[in-house]
Amino acid sequence: MKATAQDFRSKLFDKKNLKIILTLSGLVVLLLAYTALRDTDTLITHKQANILYSKDKIKKVIVDGDYIHLKTDGGNYKIYKNAINTAAFFSKYPVEVKEDKGYIFDLLLLLILLGSIGYLFRMMKVNRLQQLRQIRGAREENAEIYEPVQALKSNVTFKDVAGIKDVKEELEEIIDFLREPQKYRDMDIRLPKGVLLVGPPGVGKTLISKAVAGEAGVPFFYQSGASFVHIYVGMGAKRVSELFKKAKQMAPSIIFIDEIDAVGKSRGEFRNDEREATLNQLLTEMDGFEESSGVIVIGATNKIDVLDEALLRAGRFDRRIHISLPDLEDRMKILELYLAHKPNNVDIESVARMTVGFNSAALDTLTNEAAIYAMREGRKVVENSDFEAVKEKVLLGKRKILSFTEEERKIQAVYQGAKAVVATWLDVEFEKIGIVTTRLSVQEHEILSRSKLINRIKVYLAGSIATKLHYNEQFNNAGTDIRQAKELLNKVIYDYWMSEDFIVNPHKEEELMREMVSEVTDLLKKLGKALSDVSEYLLQHENIDQEACRKILLEIF
Ligand code: ADP
Question: In what order do the strands lie in the sheet with 430-434?
Fold first, then answer.
């Protein structure tokens, strides 16, 4: 908040400051009064002085600097010393010479004034600091309220984690160590302090870490990397040390740091002091504790390549476990787990087959949505059709509304139908091609040949070429496919160098594209009847799978 002049004034005159100001003003007034009053003698002329002299009224003569003070019974007077014959006065009356102490008073006054001003400023500063401390204290309290470092008790065990068998096996040793650290200490066995789980979101990195804590029966400290750097300056590092302190107190225990890349991003050109301070603290803490202390730090990230190397150095996160999207077998296990308590009549394998690319979290949502759908339809048992009905919704996050006009639907039927027939003819696998969506099968861990890649590009081009043939026109619905075709072609030429002479240049790109367009055009001309049948099928059924497409082709050829 910006301080306004009014703020300042109101702060200046708050109760405490007001007291100080009043006291000091009083003091100053007193001093001024004193100096004003300290010399009250009346100044007289030499004539008056001579009268006093001659009338013998004077009791005492006091010499004070340049003045002569004359004390009489009727009052005290003073006169400039050069105005009178001082010798005459001195010989007639008792004389007292006053030391000139005037400057001492002035000095004293100055000192008191300076002192007072200094004191005033100091008090104001102290007040300000107190206010700042109060504000900071409140902030820290707030941060504590939002995210206290506290241990969780994990009820999750390996039974709740479906699939990822390899990951579980890798973590068995850690669990054993957490259960019986002494056994390892006795044999002087060193275990990793940190384990890094690397994999895309929603594949169970958090779940498996909780399961490790659950299996070992140790406390689980959860902290997300982002939370370290989003809080106030200087707090990230403080929280790291607090986290480790508590974890050590409760050892054996697990510290889980989700999205560790938020803290551990390599210190590139964009410096961030807060993150760096936090990272340094994390490194210090990890170096600082003994392998045998019983604390295991599990970090989770999707982007190991952006992590600061320091984090990956020996003695820190030196064990890495990769978790990828579930494959067919794992998808079946996960679906089985999610369906375990739902009355169902589902062919799990077929659902698993139609969910290539789904992570566990999406499978969880899908199963739930399918059950909701079945219930809404008034059934007590979940069926495969329920999964099909909600799949698009889960994929898109919302139900896809078909808002095409009849004419647009026809264009799409030709466009998508061409992709289906060309893909089937060229053996490019797809799960389903619909009026709106295309899901070519994702090849998992596969070495792809040049001809396979070229065939895939041809499928992307097929729709656009078909509308050109059919309507003598091209449409912008081809955008995504054309982009994918270009990207893949680019990879074939520039990344994989797939040409007979290994020469790469834009000329090659053009040549290959021309070749492919001409081949697909010829092919579509040849498959004309099949295309119109498939388009018809699409208009009726909304989508087609490869089996149905193959059947249509077989009837013709
Ligand atoms: P990540 O930490 O990798 O982003 P989470 O552990 O948060 O993923 O998992 C996301 C969701 O998916 C959670 O609801 C979790 O229970 C579920 N889940 C993830 N992996 C599995 C699995 N292997 N078995 C069962 N459920 C899983």
Answer: 438-440, 430-434, 543-544
